[in-house]
What we know:
The chain has 224 residues and is an alpha+beta fold. It is built from four helices and eight strands. The chain has an eight-stranded mixed sheet.
Amino acid sequence: MKIKKSSLLVVAGMAVLLAGCGNQATSTNSKKTDNTPKTEAVKRSQNDQTQAADQSTASANTPATDNNSQSNQQATAQNNQNANNAQTKEFNNQAQAASYVTNQPGYTTGNQQGLPTVNLGDGITGTLNSGAGQQMLQWNEGNWSFTVRASAVQGQDPTPTAKQIVNELQTVYLPAPQNHGVGTFDIATNTYTLTWQKNNKVYSVSGSSPSDVIAKAVNAGKNE
């Protein structure tokens, strides 16, 4: 009977120990289980913060790059526009530049004697030279020499165009040539050019109509 009681006590003690170990293991596993989600949550939070910072940096940099690109494009477009206002030829000296202008078609030094005259308005008189199937009406204003060419074969009359140009030049001002300037308005071929000289440079513009080429010359004169 004493042995049996002793054995029972031993078994009971072992059961208690085993139960305690089981509870401790369960508690440990529970702690490990509790720790795992917290660690993963921290990692996710850190990753989210890193991604947000990267996106913020990229967002901050992108507009600046786009703005710089737009500014460069606008500057390039503006430079091209200024460059296209007038073609420029540069000579060794002023005399060569002036000679280039006076050798352009349509340049004359003044009204030609013996030719019919035409009243163009505003006190300006032109001379009309007809022949070889064409009519050329010429006049001078300041250092400018102007010629309107028309096709007689096509029944064109240069007078209305010449009067239009004279009238328009009363309200807008062409660049003042240092020595010589020449304007040729060919209504037979729809070719309109203005060429003038300053120092050793010669500027030239062309347009689709008399008003167009005059406007271009005025703008080009502002950028000389």
